[in-house]
Amino acid sequence: MTSFTREHVRALYDRPLLPLIDEARAVHRSHHPDNEVQLCTLLSVKTGGCAEDCSYCPQSSHYDTSVGAEKMLDVAHVMASARRAKELGSTRFCMGAAWREVKDGPAFDRVLSMVRGVKDLGLEACVTLGMVTEEQAKRLKDAGLDAYNHNLDTSRENYRSIIKTRTFDDRLRTLENVRKAGVTVCSGGIIGMGESIDDRCEMLRTLANLEPQPESVPINALVPVEGTPLANMPPVDPLDLVRMIAVARILMPKARVRLSAGRTALSREAQLMCMFAGANSIFYGEKLLTTPNPEEEEDLSLLRDAGLTAMPPRPSVTTAL
Ligand code: SAM
Ligand code: DTB
Ligand code: SF4
C-alpha cells in the first residue's frame, strides 16, 4: 500500500467542508451499509489510581480529580453489565482498566475471565488495559478477544506535551503486539487538547499508514475534567470533529470510525453530521468510563428520527445465549 504524505493529509483536511463530506460519503457508501450505526458499551472494570500522567485523564494519580482509585470489579458484576448492554441493543462491549501496562497475575486472569464471559453472550469483546506484550495479547486472543483499544491520542510531535510517562513509540509497540497476536486494532485520538491542525493530520496519517490499517478508529472530543491540566480548554468546534471524521473515513475506508467521547456537548444535528461524514459507531449508555454520556433513550430517539438503525448482532461474532 502506498503511504500517505503529510501534504496529502493536510490538503484533505483543508478542503472546503462540503466537498470534503461529499468525498467521505462516497467512500463510506462504497464500503459500509449506509444507515447503520454500531452501539458499543463501555465499562470501567478498574477505575482510577493510574500511574500514567495523561493530561486529559481523570483517572491519572498525578492529578487531583473527583475520580479516586477503586478496587477491580468482579466477574459477576461485569457479566451483569454486559447482559444489560446486550438487552439494550449494544453489540460490542469494551472494558477499560486504568493501568499503565498489563501485569501477569490474578488481575489479568480476571480480565481473561471477563473476556470469555462477554464472548459467551455473543457480543464483540474489546479491552483497553494500557501497554501489552505479544504474549499477553495472545492470551487475550485465546480468551476470545476481538479488539484491543490503544489510542495514539495525538501526533508524535505533540505527544510529550500531553503525556510524559511514556512515548509515542511505546504506543506503536503495543499496537504491533496486538496485531501480531491476531487481535484487531482499535486506535484513534482526541481533539481539543490545544493541538495544531498539523498535529491532528499527523495523528490520522500515522494511523492510516499502519499496515494493515486499524479496524476501528475512535475520534474523541476532549471532555475537560476538573483537576486535570486540560480542565480549562475551550470546547471543540463541532465542525472540527466533522472534519476529522471525514478525513479519517477517506484515509481509512474500511475502518469503523467511532464518534466517541464528548457527545454530551454536541447537538443532535452535530452528531448527525458526524455520522453523515462517516462515523458509524457511538458509545451507548449513560456513562463512558468515568464521565457522562447521553442517556440511552436520547440516542435511540436520535437514530429513530434520522432513520438510522442500530447494527444487529453479526452471526460471525455471535453465539446463542
Ligand atoms: N489506560 C488505558 C490507555 O490509556 O490505553 C485505557 C483507558 S484510557 C481512559 C482510553 C482512552 O480514553 C485514552 O487513550 C483517551 O484517548 C480517552 N480519554 C481519556 N480521558 C479522556 C477525556 N477526558 N476526554 C476524551 N477522551 C479521553
Ligand atoms: C476511546 O477512544 N474512547 C473511550 C474508549 N476509547 C475506551 C474512552 C473515553 C473516556 C472518556 C473519559 C472517561 O469517561 O473517563
Ligand atoms: Fe491511565 Fe489510560 Fe488515563 Fe492515561 S488514559 S492516565 S493510561 S487510564
Quick take:
The chain is 38% helix and 14% strand. With 321 residues, it is α/β, with parallel strands linked by helices.
What features would you highlight for this structure?
disordered C terminus, 11 helices, binds iron/sulfur cluster, TIM Barrel, 321 residues, globular
Determine the strand fraction and express it as a percent band: 5-15%
Uncertain runs: 317-321
Q: CATH topology, which one?
A: TIM Barrel
Q: How helical, in percent, are the residues?
A: 25-40%
General form: globular
Tell how many strands the DSSP assignment holds: 10
Structural overview:
Helix 1 packs across helix 8, helix 5 (134-142) crosses helix 7 (168-180) and helix 9 runs parallel beside helix 10. Strands 1, 2, 3, 4, 5, 6, 7, 8, 9 and 10 form a 10-stranded parallel beta sheet that branches. The chain has helices at 6-13, 17-31, 75-87, 106-120, 134-142, 159-162, 168-180, 197-208, 238-251, 268-276, 296-306; strands at residues 36-46, 92-97, 124-128, 147-149, 184-186, 189-191, 216-221, 256-259, 281-283, 309-310. The protein is globular. By secondary structure, it is of the alpha/beta class. It has a single domain (6-301), classed as TIM Barrel. It contains 11 helices and 10 strands. The model is unreliable at 317-321 (pLDDT under 50). 6-(5-methyl-2-OXO-imidazolidin-4-yl)-hexanoic acid (DTB) is lined by residues 42, 58, 94, 96, 128, 149, 151, 188, 218, 220, 223, 260-261, 288-291.
